[in-house]
Design goal:
Layout (H helix, E strand, L loop, with lengths): L5 H38 L10 H27 L6 H26 L1
Helix pairs in contact: 2-3
């Protein structure tokens, strides 16, 4: 059996840590510069348009999580009965259900105003 040296094992263990830290730094500076850009545009009197539609995203994510969670719950229930493995399907089902409730509450209150 060929085992790696302790130095190689340390370097292999550091690769994901360095990747996560570098990714975090990139995301931080992207968010920071995007905030500064929006702040500057608002100071100059221009209101930037939102490119992200929260209603559509919550509907899509809710439907996807709801359907995947339902299928996984049924599969795990039929495979192993009522066991902790059913949580693997109930958790995305609950997330999807809550996103759908959020979508319907948001659209209902927006139509009322």
């Amino acid at each position: 059996m060929n085992t790696a040296s302790p130095t190689a094992q340390v370097l292999i263990a550091l690769i994901p840590i360095v990747g996560i830290v570098a990714g975090g730094v990139v995301v931080f500076f992207y968010l920071y510069w995007n905030h500064k850009k929006s702040e500057l545009l608002i100071r100059q009197g221009y209101v930037p348009q939102r490119l992200f539609d929260l209603d559509t995203f919550s509907l899509l994510a809710g439907l996807l999580n709801l359907s995947v969670g339902l299928v996984l719950s049924i599969y795990f229930f039929l495979r192993g009965g009522l066991s902790p493995s059913v949580l693997g399907g109930l958790i995305p089902f609950a997330i999807g259900l809550s996103l759908m409730v959020f979508y319907f509450i948001r659209t209902h209150t927006a139509n009322r105003q």
